[in-house]
Amino acid sequence: MGMENYSPHQQKIIKRYYENMDSVAWQRLSELVADLYLAEGKKRDKLWASAASFMEKIKVPQVRIDAIVQKKDVEGLAKLVKELMGKD
User: Fold this and answer.
1) What is the DSSP string of 52-86?
2) What contacts 24+ positions apart, CB below 8 Å, involve 46-53?
């Protein structure tokens, strides 16, 4: 299914979404920090999987992703988000 199936307006929306995918992934990752603090059980495991996926999308080194996810280090994830924001 190509872009010709969409109106010009829809094509622009789709194009902007993909141009800003890093921003979308970063925003969702920052939201996951709060969700992880509050989550328990299986939901928490699913959130960690999502966090790993979003970190991959924004090209965080795999070594760092593995370290944060394996330890389930919410503070480490929060620190990463802060670094990405440029607020070391």
Assistant:
1) HHHHHHTT--HHHHHHHHHHT-HHHHHHHHHHHHT
2) 48/72, 51/77
pLDDT tens-digit map of 1-22: 577 789 999 989 888 888 887 7
User: Do 17 and 24 touch, CB atoms closer than 8 A?
Assistant: yes
Residue 15 lies in a domain: yes
Domain of residue 55 covers 7-85
Taking the model in full, what pTM does it have?
0.73
Q: Is residue 2 part of a domain?
A: no
Measured CA to CA, the distance from residue 39 to residue 86 in angstroms comes to 27
54 within a domain of the structure (yes/no): yes
Confidence at residue 22, expressed as pLDDT on a 0 to 100 scale: 73
User: What is the tally of structural domains in the chain?
Assistant: 1
